[in-house]
Write a structure and sequence with these properties.
CATH topology of the largest domain: MetI-like fold
Number of domains: 2
Shape: flat
CATH superfamily of the largest domain: MetI-like
Radius of gyration: 31 Å
Largest sheet: 2 strands, antiparallel
Helix content: over 70%
CATH architecture of the largest domain: Orthogonal Bundle
Length: about 475
């Protein structure tokens, strides 16, 4: 059975277990025995949980272990010269997986002809719609056969383990259904554990991201000095020439400056427009205007970034070049910081506007009424009462927009270019950290080369920058926020 069939079986038997548990509790209460310790629904949920949870845990555990066991099987059947070459190893593993898929489609006669050399595996697999770039080597056939054997065994083991867990859980829980069983406490504790596990996903994911970046970044810093990286002013991660130890220059400062400069112009557009529109919709606009304007503003957040990039490349960039940059003698390219910042600012307006609107609207109505009753105007009420009360949420909205601007890639590629330079000229081409991360992780570079590992150093640095912005925002909020009883 495949995973979908197993999930359907788990869902069906779990529902059946719920019905059995509910039925048994009703029968027990109807026979004049002592009062049930919980409602019948809790007994049904108790049987459902015991039926589904062990099977799901086994299915998830074996699904995680399966690719690891498959890769170990392939490695065990590859020659040593392949294992010693990390680049070739990944290609060989992918090739063995393709051969294993082809072996599953071939008939016994075709497999025998391949074994005795009458036909080539490449021609047989091509006949089944699985073309290979080159013919199959003998050790690939051996590794693919072993991989298929292990995969078939794992499929059988998963089916048996899941079915056995379902049967055991259903019988065990059904036998435990008795009037004095505190099913409600057991069910609620189980649900509480599930909620805690769900809330831990974000924390564990963050830890996993940091560790994955940190280990690779440390490997990069073992090849390139952190001082040269963080204080370098030249970004030129070129390939090393044959027989040379030169690996290029990895100056971080041009990328950092480009990221900050473009984000600055984006926030210069997004924050005033977004905040003013939020104030208008929350305090001045009629309900009819608000019902129309707010959805139209939020539409901006749903437009794909590639569309913004095309808009910047074909419309905004040429306009700024022809009517501003060239007449002022500051540049001749449509790809520049102003173009990227302007279009990116338009894109993140909804992050500031919509969130700030919700936050301002959530300020207690009593604060408004009290201020107006004391003779303050609506403008004074907004500036001196509502905005101080909404400051923490507004700062959070601005931070979210800033994080969105710092992490944007596609608009920068199309609107600002890929030139790594530090300049005060806003009409010059520049680039950001995220663009270079993408550039360094694409292509045929070795994963262990500094040209590839530098992407992880850039990633962990960007993470620290974002964390610093959050800490700064929290400090500002705690210092200036107003407390209301």
């Amino acid at each position: 059975m495949g995973p979908l069939w197993l999930l359907a079986l788990i869902a069906g038997l779990s529902f059946f277990g719920f019905i059995l548990g509910h039925w048994k509790s009703v029968v027990l209460s109807g026979k004049g025995r002592s009062t049930l310790a919980a409602r019948p629904g809790y007994y049904g949920a108790y049987v459902l949980i015991w039926t589904a949870m062990p099977a799901l845990l086994i299915l998830v555990a074996l699904s995680i272990a399966r690719p690891l066991l498959a890769e170990h099987t392939v490695r065990a059947n590859l020659p040593q010269q392949v294992l010693d070459n990390p680049t070739q190893l990944s290609l060989e593993i992918s090739g063995v997986e393709q051969v294993a898929a082809g072996l599953k489609t071939a008939t016994p006669e075709e497999l025998e002809n391949i074994r005795i050399g009458v036909v080539t595996a490449r021609s047989v697999f091509a006949g089944h719609g699985l073309p290979l770039g080159e013919d199959v080597r003998p050790y690939q056939l051996i590794a693919a056969s072993a991989l298929n054997l292990v995969s078939d065994g794992l499929d059988t083991a998963v089916d048996i383990a899941v079915v056995a867990a379902l049967a055991f859980g259903l019988i065990f829980a059904f036998m435990r259904v008795k009037p004095r069983l505190r099913a409600r406490n057991l069910v609620e504790n189980t649900v509480l554990a599930l909620l805690i596990a769900a809330s831990s996903v974000a924390v564990l994911t963050t830890i996993g991201i940091v560790l994955s970046l940190l280990f690779q970044a440390l490997q990069f810093f073992s090849m390139v000095s952190p001082i040269n990286f963080y204080f370098g002013t030249v970004w030129d991660p070129r390939f090393a020439a044959a027989g040379s130890t030169e690996s290029g220059q990895f100056g971080f400062l041009p990328l950092f400056w480009g990221t900050i400069y473009i984000s600055f112009f984006a926030m210069l557009v997004a924050v005033p427009i977004g905040l003013f529109s939020a104030v208008y919709m929350a305090e001045y606009a009629t309900s009819k205007v608000r019902s129309i304007a707010k959805p139209l503003i939020e539409v901006l957040a749903g437009i794909p970034t590639i569309v913004y990039g095309f808009f910047a490349l074909t419309t905004v960039g040429p306009l700024i070049r022809d009517y501003v940059a060239v007449p002022l003698g500051l540049g001749t390219s449509g790809n520049n910081v102003i173009t990227a910042g302007l279009v990116m600012g338009i894109m993140i307006i909804p992050y500031v506007s919509s969130l700030s609107d919700d936050i301002i609207t959530a300020v207690p109505r009593s604060l408004r009424d009290g201020s107006l009753a004391l003779g303050a105007t609506r403008s004074e009420t907004m500036r001196q009462v509502i905005m101080p009360a909404a400051l923490p949420g507004v700062v959070g909205a601005v931070l979210l927009a800033m994080s969105r601007a710092i992490g944007e890639t596609m608009i920068v590629v199309l609107a600002a270019g890929v030139a790594a330079r530090a300049s005060l000229n806003p009409f010059a081409e520049m680039t950001t950290i995220t663009v270079k991360i993408v550039n360094q992780l694409t292509g045929d570079l070795e994963f262990t080369s500094p040209q590839t590992l530098v992407a992880f150093a850039l990633g962990i640095t960007l993470f620290v920058i974002t964390l610093g912005l959050n800490v700064l925002a929290l400090t500002i909020v705690r210092k200036y926020r107003e407390q209301y009883e």
